[in-house]
C-alpha cells in the first residue's frame, strides 16, 4: 500500500499547488483587472479610509483638504475645496464615486501616500497606517483671483502665467469655472453643459487659433536660422497674393520695406507671411516643435487633459512633410490651433533667454510630519532660440507694448514685452455662431529686461481685439504677481 | 524517545512567538498603544500548548513530533485572525480550543487500543450516517444559506458533518482492510476496464449513495465532495486499482451533474461558480467579494487588521462570512500571496506528516485509518480554499483549525488524536521490531 500512499500524497500536493496557482492569479496576475471591475467597490471604500493629503497654494492657502465623516468603523474622508471655483482648474476634484481629474489625479500617489510594497511592509511592522502627503503648488492666490475675475468679466477664456526661469506655473485660470465641491451632486449636469463646458480646462484643452501671437514663433525661427537679422528689411505691401487668396494687412495698410521691429510692432501680416515662405516647412516646424508644438506639454496634469498644439490635419497634427500654406501658418492662421498653455510656454522661452523650462504646477511634497520629501527641480525642456536671438526678439516685443498694437499691456515703471493676437472665428458654436466673433490674445512677459513672469491670456467670443480684452488681463495679472514679489 | 518530544517542544516556541506577535500587531492597529494583554494571551496559549506537550510526553512518547506544533500554529494563526475580526468570537474560539484539547486528551486516554474501533465499525458507520441526517430532522435541524448543515440540541449547536467524517473514515478503513484482498483478486476486466467484483460492489454503492444523499437532502456539495474524495483515496490505497478511482469519479460526476441540475441550491452554487458576474449584488456577491479581497492583497498583503470586512458606516458585509468560509480570502488580503502560501504550506506539511504515519504504520487498519484521516483533512482544506479562490464551486465547509467554529476545531482535534495514537504505536514498533510487531502481524 505504501506506493499508493506516496502517490496519494503527490496528488494532494498537486491539489495544493492548484490552490497556490489560483491565489496567485487573483492576488497578483489578475489583480489590476479585478480592481477595475464595476462590481468591485473595495478600492473606492479603501481610498475613503485614507486621509488624502492637502493641496496648498504657494502661500499656504488650503486649496483642497480631506475631512473626516463618521467615527469608528464608519470613519471615512471626504474631499473639500475651501476656495470653491477659484482652483476648479487646474486642481480638479477627487471623489469616491465620481473619480478624479487634473492635478488631483496626476498627483494621486503622493496625495494618498502610496509607497513601494517593501516600504509599506516596514510601515505595517511599525504599526503606521497609510497617510497622505501634502502637495504645495506654485499657484499664486492673488494672481489666480485676478485672472479669474478678469476673465469672468471679459468672457470665456483662459490665463496661464509661468515663471520663466523655473517653469513654475503661478496662474492657471479657465472660465467657465466650476466649483469642485458641487461635483458629487451635479457631475452629470456639468458634463451635459456642452456650450459653457465648465469641466474643460481651457488653459490646457482649449485649442484656439493663436492669430498674430504666433508671429513671435515665426520671428524666432527667422532670427535663429539667420534667415533674417533685426536689420533685414522685407517689402510689406497692403495685400499679398498667396495660393490664390489675398493675404491682407489690417485696413490693407501698405508699409514698404521694413525690419522686424516695425513689422512686429504693427503686426504686419504680409511681412510675416513672406518670412514664413522664406523659412520653408522644415525651419518653421523645427522651431515650433522646440517651443513645444506637436507634443503634449510636459506639465504635471494627466496626458488626456492636456492637448497638443499644432496645425491640425485629418489624421492628427501635420508635420514638416505635409503641404501647408506657410504664409498663413506664419501669422497664426490656416488650421493652426494652440492652447493658452502652449502660448505661455512660447512667451516663457523668449523671456528665459531662449530656454524653455518644463512648466510645473507642483512645488514640493510635504509628509505628515512636515518634512519636505520631494522638491521641484526645474529642468529644461528645450532651447528653441539662442540668448542673442531672444534678446533681439524681446526688443521687438517691447515695441509692441510701448508704441504698437499692445499698448494696453503697459505697466507704469516696468518694461513689458508682448504680442497681441486677434483671430477671426466666425460661426463658433460656443459663441452662438455669430459672424464677428474673434479670439483675442495677448502673450508677453515682464519686466522685459529681467523677466519674472510670462503670461498668455485669451478670450473667446469677443468682437474686440487682443489689445482691448486680453492685454488688460495680462497687465492686471502681471501687476499682481510683480507687486507680490 | 524523548528526543521526539524535545523536538516538539522546540517547535512550539516559534508558534508562541507568532501568536504573540500577531496579537501585538492587532493591538497596535486598534488601540495605537501596545497593551501587555497580547503578551498574556501569548503566555496562556503557550502554557496550554506546553501542558498538552507534557501530556503527550507521558502518554505518547513516540508519536510524531511535528503534527501538534503544526496544528498549534494553525490554531494560533486562526485565533489571531478571528480576534482581528471580533474579540468576542476569538474568546469563543479559545474556549473551543480548550474543549478540543480536552477531547484530544480523552481520545488518547481511552482509545489507546484504537483497533477496538474495528469491532464497532457498523455501529460507527450508522452513527456517522445518522449524524449526517440529523440536520434534516424536524426540531433539531437547521438550515443555513439553503444547506442543512447544523443541529441544535437545546443550548448546544454543532455541525455534525465535522464529526461524521471521522466516523465514516473509521468505517471505510476497517471495511477496506478486510475486503481489499477480494476487491483486488475478484476484479475482472470488462471491455479493457478493471471492475470490482459485483459482490463487493454493494458497499461501495452505499458510499456513493450516501454522497448523493448528502447532495440532495443536506444540499451540501462541499461535504459530499470531501467524503467521496476521501473514500476514493482510501479505495485507491487499499486496492492499488486506479481504474476503481476513475469509475468512482465518473459515478460522482454523473450523479452530481444530475442533481446539480435538479436540486436548486446545488444548481445555483454551480451556476455562480461558472459566472459570478451575472448577479454581483445577489448570489454572486460572496465569491466576487472573496476574489476582490484577494486582488487587494497583492504579494505582501495590507497587513494585520487592515482589511475592510464591513462597508464602513454600516453593518453590511463587504466580505461575507469572513470568520468562516472566506477566512482564507481575508488572509490573502492582509498577508498577501506569501502569507497564504505559508498557510497552504502548513497544510501540506500536516498532510506529509499524516501520510508518513501511514507509511510507518505496521498493520493494514492503522495504515488505512491514517491515510483516510489525513486525506479527509487535506481535502477539506482544498474544498474550502478551492471554493473561495473559484477553483471549484464555493461551499460552506470550514478551514480546519483556522475558521471560527466549535465543531470543526473539536472534531479536528479528535482526528489529530487518532493520528498521534497510530503514530506512537508505529514508531514504537519501528524501534522495537521484535516484540509486538510480529504478534500483530504487519503488512
Summarize the structure.
Chain A is α+β, with helices and mostly antiparallel strands. Chain A has 17 helices and 22 strands. Chain B has 16 helices and five strands.
Q: Please, how many helices of chain A?
A: 17
Strand order of the largest sheet of chain B: 1-2-3
Total beta-strand segments of chain B:
5
N→C terminal distance of chain B: 24 Å
Order of helices and strands of chain B: HHHHHHEEEHEEHHHHHHHHH
- Biggest interface, residues from each chain: A-B, 49 and 63 residues
Beta-strand content estimate of chain B: under 5%
Question: Helix/strand/pairing class of chain B, anyone?
Answer: mainly alpha
Number of separate helices of chain B: 16
The helix/strand class of chain A is: alpha+beta
Please summarize the sheet with the most strands of chain B.
3 strands, antiparallel
Overall average residue pLDDT of chain B: 84
Give the overall pLDDT of chain A as a whole number.
Answer: 90
The gyration radius over C-alpha positions of chain A equals 27 Å
Low-confidence region ranges of chain A: none
Distance, first to last CA of chain A: 90 Å
Beta-strand residue percentage of chain A? 15-25%
Q: Going by CATH, what is the homologous superfamily of the largest domain in chain A?
A: DD-peptidase/beta-lactamase superfamily
Q: Indicate the CATH class of the largest domain in chain A.
A: Alpha Beta
In the CATH hierarchy, the architecture of the largest domain in chain A is 3-Layer(aba) Sandwich
Strand order of the largest sheet of chain A: 3-2-1-6-17-18
